[in-house]
Write a structure and sequence with these properties.
This protein is of the alpha+beta class. Helices cover about 15% and strands about 35% of the residues. The protein folds into three domains: about 150-295, Methanol Dehydrogenase, Chain A (8 Propeller); about 295-435, TolB, C-terminal domain (Neuraminidase); about 440-705, 3-Layer(aba) Sandwich (Rossmann fold), CATH 3.40.50.1820.
Length: about 725
């Protein structure tokens, strides 16, 4: 009878057990893939593409998934064989399909960059071999706008490496509103020093050389040209020359008015120059100076009325919204308060409304607001509320929007909402339709052991409190002591502690199931808490950031359920810089660290990013040296793993090589691993790179940070 009862009970226990997350679930099977986000489709390109079997000039059917529709929605550019170059740039074979004729032609030979239609759809501009071209659709004629393009010397219509990476754009030309002009960048990078990367994909290897201006080194000389499409004349925009940047150009609604954004090398003085397209002459439209630096973003909008421009600025301590008249007579601040605007979502000039997202009511949250500017005073209304993360996308008419709402423990619930105006002209957002509640993913998550994430506020020694989150093991027992892994990025203006599923969430849950507490702390210098908190790290990157991580680790170490002798730190890129500081300057607190693709000396990084926060090494040598991990390897007491891709064009492999040389010189035991030919992202599904690196790091954490309450890696000699 007793045996029968025991056998009867076993199946019920099995049914009640939760699954364990595997790395194959995360990186191979797509087990935790969320429903595809929805967006408003502003054209009928998919219906056109699906209505025709589009073939190339040899009669072979084209894969038309990668395409661009013309403004009149009658022609389509189809891109095949797309080849990615750097973070934002790519080139592809380009075909033009005309719905009216049903014919397809190839636009030039070879692969082209930045292929776009003119505003009236009659012409196509593109970049090839560092030169800018215009293709006339009616005549099939190609005209070279520039002819002096040369690799590692002259670039027309495309960014040099550092502009693409740090000013975050790659197509360096723009059509005027009516298409009469084409404004374009010309980079002369002749005097910029080259960096060489060896790729191990050939019997004798392959060397790739490109221009990489490091901190304190010479930049490209930049000219802005304005080409008259009708006359063929070309003029240069007039502005103060010298050691300067042109981080943006933007057309106003006037076809003869281009705005050139001029910035000095220190990036603490920004001027907007209103430039005549016909002559290149300019006048000052706006200037902003800052005791630290002025950040460049894409929130600048030149209004359809031709009389105003909209932008965001930190001029009053927090990033807020401003509306200025072009003549300089009217200057209006549309939002105010101790919170930051993160995005402009839509502009309704007819009803004089600006829709924007703000980090409110907490820096970790995002909510939608509308600012109405038609009355005597701007009126601000909240359209979403609560401690949540709202990702917003409006339709073209700014009457409806998709709202993807999530929090620290939940995938997004996507709804469609409509802007409603009541009789008193108050605005609200009305629910129209539930698009997806991600019920499939939620049901899947319910099958697994998932640790709950909680927000914390941790004091530092500067009088601030730091935002943090903690994920505890699913079967958490406060009587046990658990090792802790700090997961940190920490760079200027960044944010990891946000009210949505964290980046790398499922890898964190995998480790939590193995008995680790996961911590993430947004240190001094991170974003959305005002200018002073963010810019406090000016001239000494790494100092306050690592002090905060050390203070947070000490604070957590005093909790009764934490094994203070097993606190580790992990990070990638800037986070790898932080992890390298954690195991050196934080040697008395952190017992293990993994640094992936780390900056180990800011002298090795590019000048636009580094000098924005540090100025030149020639001006601030101690700021560079006092917080470079390569200068403190002798302090290491714990375990250290450094990982890098040998083909990293961003954070150069040289950083890890120099760190290793310093470790050897200090006679420090460490581990290193490199991924041949991989860039900064170190990824790849076909060659197993993605699952390999995440498995390697997880196993290393379990082996070097674990204790009696954690799981050891299975088959320690195998990567997975």
């Amino acid at each position: 009878m007793r045996l029968l009862a025991l056998l009867f009970f076993i199946p019920f226990v099995a049914v009640g057990q939760k699954k364990q997350i595997t790395l194959e679930d995360i990186y191979k099977k797509g087990t935790f893939r969320a429903d595809t986000p929805v967006s408003f489709v502003s054209d009928n390109s998919d219906s056109i593409v699906n209505s025709f079997k589009i073939k190339d000039d040899k009669g072979m059917e084209l894969d038309s998934r990668d395409h661009l529709l013309s403004p009149d929605q009658k022609k389509i550019l189809i891109f095949t064989g797309r080849e990615y170059i750097y973070r934002r740039s790519s080139k592809a074979n380009v075909y033009l399909f005309d719905e009216n004729t049903g014919h397809t032609i190839r636009i030039d030979t070879g692969k082209l960059l930045h292929t776009t239609f003119s505003p009236d759809g009659s012409k196509i501009a593109y970049v090839k071999s560092n030169n800018l071209y215009i293709y006339d659709i009616a005549t099939n004629a190609i005209k070279a706008i520039t002819t002096d393009g040369k690799w590692n010397s002259i670039i027309n219509g495309n960014c040099d490496w550092v502009y693409e990476e740090e000013f975050e754009f790659t197509r360096a030309y723009d059509w005027s509103p009516k298409g009469n002009y084409l404004a374009y960048y010309r980079f002369d990078e002749t005097n910029v020093k080259e960096y060489s990367i060896t790729f191990y994909d050939d019997s004798y290897n392959r060397e790739y050389r490109y221009k990489y201006p490091k901190a304190g080194e010479e930049n490209s000389k930049v000219e802005i040209h304005i080409y008259n499409v009708n006359s063929g004349s070309d003029v240069k925009a007039e502005y103060e020359q010298g050691d300067i940047y042109i981080p943006r150009i933007k057309w106003t609604m006037d076809d003869d008015q281009l705005v050139v954004f001029w910035m000095n090398r220190r990036q603490d003085d920004l001027k907007l120059l209103l430039t005549k397209a016909s002559t290149g002459s300019s006048s000052l439209l706006y200037e902003e100076k800052n005791k630290y630096f002025v950040e460049i973003d894409d929130n600048w909008r030149f209004m359809n009325d031709g009389k105003h421009f909209l932008f965001t600025s930190e001029m009053n301590g927090y990033r807020h919204l401003y509306l200025y008249s072009m003549d300089g007579k009217t200057k209006t601040q549309l939002s105010q308060g101790n919170y930051e605007i993160t995005e402009i979502n839509g502009i309704d000039e007819t009803n004089k409304r600006i829709f924007y997202t703000a980090a409110w009511p907490r820096p970790m949250d995002r909510n939608l607001f509308v600012a109405e500017y038609g009355g005597k005073k701007p009126k601000t209304t909240t359209l979403t509320e609560g401690q949540a993360w709202h990702k917003i996308e409006f339709n073209a008419a700014n009457t409806r929007f998709y709202d993807a709402q999530s929090d620290l423990n939940s995938p997004p619930v996507v709804t469609l909402k409509e802007i409603i105006t009541d009789k008193k002209k108050n605005l609200t957002a009305k629910l129209v339709q539930l698009i997806t509640d991600n019920s499939r993913l939620k049901a899947t998550l319910n099958e697994y052991e998932i640790g709950k994430a909680d927000f914390l506020r941790i004091p530092n020694n500067k009088g601030d409190t730091l935002n943090a989150f903690m994920i505890k093991p699913p079967q958490f027992d406060p009587a046990k002591k658990y090792p802790v892994l700090f997961c940190n990025y920490g760079g200027p203006g960044s944010q990891e502690v946000a009210n949505k599923l964290p980046r790398y969430y499922y890898w964190y849950q995998y480790l939590a199931e193995k008995g680790f507490i996961i911590m993430s702390v947004d240190n001094t210098g991170t974003g959305f808490r005002g200018e002073e908190f963010k810019k406090k790290t000016y001239l000494q990157l790494g100092k306050y950031e690592i002090e905060d991580q050390i203070e947070a680790a000490k604070y957590i170490g005093n909790l009764g359920f934490v094994d203070k002798n097993n606190i580790g730190h992990w990070g990638w890129s800037y986070g790898g810089f932080m992890s390298s500081l954690a195991i050196t300057k934080g040697a008395n607190v952190f017992s293990a660290a993994i640094a992936v693709a780390p900056v180990t000396n800011w002298r090795n990084y590019d000048n636009i990013y580094t000098e924005r926060y540090m100025r030149k090494p020639q001006e601030n040598a101690s700021g560079y040296d006092d917080n470079s991990p390569i200068n403190f390897t002798s302090l290491i007491k714990g375990k250290y793993l450094i990982i890098h891709g040998t083909g990293d064009d961003n954070v150069l492999f040289q950083n890890s090589i120099q760190m290793v040389k310093s470790l050897v010189k200090s006679n420090i035991d460490f581990e290193s691993f490199y991924y041949p030919d991989k860039n900064h992202g170190i990824s790849g599904n076909l060659d197993n790179t993605t699952i390999h690196i995440w498995t390697k790091m997880a196993n290393w954490v379990m082996k070097n940070l674990g204790n009696e309450n954690t799981v050891r890696p299975a088959g320690e000699r195998k990567a997975f």
